[in-house]
Design goal:
The protein has a single domain, classed as N-terminal domain of TfIIb (Single Sheet). Strands 1, 2, 3, 4 and 5 form a 5-stranded antiparallel sheet that branches. It is globular. With about 80 residues, it is of the alpha+beta class.
Amino acid sequence: MSLDHRLIELLVCPVCKGPLELLRDTQLQPRELLCPADRLAYPIRDGLPVMLENEARSLDAPAAPLSPTPDDAAAI
């Protein structure tokens, strides 16, 4: 079963109501809907998105530490 692309345009993140991005697997099949703001990935099962916060996969925090900005250095 394939996911209707018109549906993706209507869906928003259930947490922040922000836009979602479609992630595909290696066979280019829809796999997850990603909320970049909350760093959550909602699974797509049997062609249907599971838009439940407790079913979402949390993305890891960035591995590289953030470098201080000039404003941060001035505050020290």
